[in-house]
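Side project, low priority. Logging it here so it doesn't get lost.
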Amino acid sequence: MPTIGLMKNMKSSLAKFMPGADQELNNMAEMLGGLMTETFHSTDASFGGDTVMNSDAEKILQEASAVAEQQSGDKFPSIPDQMSEPSQSRFM
C-alpha cells in the first residue's frame, strides 16, 4: 500500500530531526495496516448490506443508465433494427 510505504520511508528521515518520530510512524503504519485488513478482509458477508442504501444506489444507477442511453442516442446514429437481406444476384 503506497501510504504505508511512504510512512516507512519517512520514518528514518524524521528520526534524525525528531526523536521518537520513527516509533510513532510505526504505530500509525500498523494501525493503518490493521484498518485496511479489517476493511477488505471482513468476515461479514453483508458488507454494504444496507438495503435502503442499496435500493437508493440501484435507483441512481438506473437513472444514470437511462440518461447515458439517451445522450448516446443523441450523439450517435441508431443501429438499424433489421439487417437488409443480401442480394440474390449472381456474378458470372
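Brief comment: Residues 51-75 form the longest helix (25 residues).
Revisit when time allows.
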